[in-house]
């Protein structure tokens, strides 16, 4: 049986969890706080980052390596696309959310609203939060732009770019960093994602002492 070392508000962990659920890979979960740098954890992943997957002696680190591993190992429910062009587009957008969205929105919100508040018990930097909100709005505009031209973020079919987008957006939404008003295409898409039984367990999880806004797990938001 696979074991996934994850952190509830880690978007990369959420991406792997959503992909594993869609592909039907059973696993158990270990909650890891990566900033604690547990020696047994850094022994598995020298980068000290969640997510990590383990089955006996086999250890997989990094969300892209993990999701691509299951894409190659399992024929069922392909998530990258059926042509080289479709796969390149899916990978471009996975990188968009993992790199650009995370750097501009997810990481500052996690630093200010989760780490500073819940771990350091300090005072968040309002300027950094407002800047993350402005960038989030730009990303929602881009998601609207894509969804006015295609059925899913990945392209014609639901795929790994939708999973990456949902994982990153859900963390930003938990941290009250998204204003959905005026983003109807993105809202309709995210409502469809939220209603999936493979995504609902992620929405049900809470970090102690840090509740999400009321709309967070509602289909109508
Ligand atoms: N490229 C990695 C990034 C993972 C990552 O940045 N994880 C964060 C938590 S969301 C982490 O463990 N940060 C602790 C650190 O970098 O020391 C992946 O895709 O898995």
Relative helix content? 40-55%
CATH architecture of the largest domain: Up-down Bundle
Q: Which oligomerization state do the chains in this entry correspond to?
A: single chain
* Cofactors and ligands: glutathione
**Largest sheet, described in full?**
4 strands, mixed
CATH T-level topology of the largest domain: Glutathione S-transferase Yfyf (Class Pi), Chain A, domain 2
Quote the beta fraction. 5-15%
Largest sheet: spatial strand order: 2-1-3-4
Mean pLDDT: 97
Please, how many helices?
8
Instruction: Give the overall form.
Output: globular
Rg, alpha carbons: 17 Å
Structural class: alpha+beta
Low-confidence stretches: none
Tally of distinct domains: 2
Order of helices and strands: EHEHEEHHHHHH
What is the first-to-last residue Cα distance?
A: 37 Å
CATH class of the largest domain: Mainly Alpha
Tell me the total number of β-strands.
Answer: 4
């Amino acid at each position: 049986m696979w074991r996934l070392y994850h952190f509830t508000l880690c978007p990369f962990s959420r991406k792997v969890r959503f992909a594993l659920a869609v592909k039907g890979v059973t696993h158990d979960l270990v909650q890891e706080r990566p900033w604690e740098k547990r020696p047994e954890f850094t022994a598995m992943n020298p980068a000290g980052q969640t997510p990590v997957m383990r089955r006996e002696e086999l250890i997989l680190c990094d969300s892209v390596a993990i999701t691509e591993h299951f894409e190659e190992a399992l024929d069922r429910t392909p998530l990258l696309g059926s042509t080289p062009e479709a796969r390149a587009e899916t990978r471009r957008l996975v990188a968009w959310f993992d790199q650009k969205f995370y750097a501009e929105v997810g990481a500052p919100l996690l630093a200010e609203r989760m780490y500073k508040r819940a771990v350091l018990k300090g005072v968040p930097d309002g300027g950094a939060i407002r800047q993350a909100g402005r960038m989030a709005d730009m990303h929602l505009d881009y998601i609207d732009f894509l969804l006015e031209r295609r059925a899913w973020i990945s392209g014609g079919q639901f795929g790994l770019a939708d999973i990456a987008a949902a994982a990153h957006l859900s963390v930003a939404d938990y941290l009250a960093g998204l204003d959905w008003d005026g983003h109807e295409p993105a809202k309709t898409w995210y409502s469809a994602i939220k209603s999936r039984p493979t995504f609902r367990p992620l929405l049900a999880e809470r970090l102690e002492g840090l509740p999400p806004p009321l709309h967070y797990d509602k289909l109508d938001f």
